[in-house]
Amino acid sequence: MSRLKELRRERGYTQIKMQHLTGIDQSDYSKIENGKRYYTFEQCRRIALALNTSMDYLAGLTDVKDAYPRKPSNSSAGVASANQNS
Questions:
Q1: How far is the first Cα of the chain from the last one, in angstroms, to the nearest whole number?
Q2: How far apart are CA 70 and CA 49, in angstroms?
Q3: CB–CB of 65/4 below 8 Å?
Q4: pLDDT per position as a tens digit, 22-72
Q5: Quick one: which of 3, 16, 26, 54 has the fewest CB in 10 Å?
Q6: Which of 20, 7, 3 is nearest to 52 (CA)?
Q7: Structure pTM?
Q8: DSSP state, residue 43
Q9: How many Å is the Cα radius of gyration of the chain?
Q10: For residues 34 and 23, what is the distance between their CA atoms, to the nearest angstrom?
């Protein structure tokens, strides 16, 4: 079983749920998961975010499933700075 499929099942997600989380069509996602299609950098990024893992784990470069610490998003940083200026 692929790392992608294994992790998706561990999270309790269906391929349809992954479609909603990533914007990747379910049939394309199925092909990616079964090794019949490669994903783009952006698709890999979206999948890693949805499954709370790293792109390195999905690529087989590490066996650590945990995601790396993430930077705060720009939208939340903008809100914080706006609140400080008030």
A1: 53
A2: 10
A3: no
A4: 999 999 999 999 999 999 999 999 999 999 999 999 999 999 999 988 888
A5: 16
A6: 7
A7: 0.78
A8: H
A9: 15
A10: 18
